[in-house]
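Residues and backbone
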Amino acid sequence: MPKQTLAEALAQQVPNNGGPSCVVCDMLPTLSKEDVAALNNALENPRITGTMIVRALSDYGATVSISTLRRHRRKECAAFRNVG
């Protein structure tokens, strides 16, 4: 049996659309427009580290892990995986 091509192997993969939702995405609808804009600006600013954002969110009263924030920032969280 011939070895399959990479294209065939990739076509057989099933996207993982399950798993827990993104804490950051879940929080966005609960924030004011001003806070959403500030958070989005911070996420887009490479000079603001994930640790800084997590610390600010903690000061605000939200619990978000650094790994969750990084996944959201890279657009690899559940919300982005479920698009398309």
